[in-house]
Amino acid sequence: MIRSYRSGDESSIxxxxxxxxPKDPISMEVFIKRVxxxxxxDPDGLILFEENGEIVGFTLCVVRKxxxxxxxxEPENGWITAFFVHPDRMGVGIGQQMFRAADQFFQARSRRHxxxxxYAPNYFVPGIDATRYPRAKSFLEHQGFxxxxxxxxxxxxxxxxxxxxxxxxxxxxRRREGYEFEPLSPKYLTQLIEMNDSKFNPDWARAVREAVAxxxxxxxxxxxxxxxxxxxxxxxGAYDGVGERFGPFGVDDRLRGTGLGxxxxxxxxxxxxxxxxxSAWFLWTGExxxxxxxxxRAGFEVTRRFDVMRKQLS
Length: 314
Fold this sequence. Notes:
Low-confidence stretches: none
Largest sheet: 7 strands, mixed
Helix content: 25-40%
Number of domains: 2
Number of helices: 9
CATH architecture of the largest domain: 3-Layer(aba) Sandwich
Strand content: 25-35%
Number of strands: 14
Radius of gyration: 21 Å
Shape: elongated
Mean pLDDT: 96
Order of helices and strands: EHHEEEHEHEEHEHHEEEHEHEE
């Protein structure tokens, strides 16, 4: 039968998740953080399929109760952030039944656009990995989802990393022009948060706030400034306390092409290595975007590809 989440389902859900998606396992701690204590969590949106007292299917639907920024509740949007069926029960229509229930959940809340799975802040992956889960990609297409764009994840090994001489020279040139590159200090914290909220992404502003609130050392957040104005930043260890996870990272678009981003990126990688980290990785960028090209020139390699997909509900 189809039913919603009930207290006590947690262990069964995590066990099913790790059986169905062994290459993308989850811990109970992550499940609690990204699902149960998400301010937008609705038990009715956690759709389960139960057979003979055993949970064999899972679909997680989200709509905003709390805006990511300002007062925008994105009233037309909804998200499915994860779904799966026990491997022994695939192909018998369980997924279709759960997605019909998901459509009803979203229609009852007047949603028109349903995404897989670009939900901030608590997404698990940016979109469907068609290489790892071709059957799931085909299933989404049959459910009416279409690809919007395809971000990539990248990794870089830091074992042999050293700050390139041209970056050192570039930093010296920018310093002569009045730019400063330094770890974040309390003096510039609120300015950095505001810059992220207004110029980049409200989710990046949230990432900075939560990282600082959770005790991330300020040395893990580098800023570029001109006089007293923050014009760029990069950081690592911001998400879930994972030190090797790089980002977020951005430079004021009025100053792109000046090399500020290159200086921040390479300096941050040097700081990561100096603090004992052996690699740097992130989940989401455009492979052919300016940032994507910058990462590739720095030695990052694409490790996964995702498709962000959307379905229109009448």
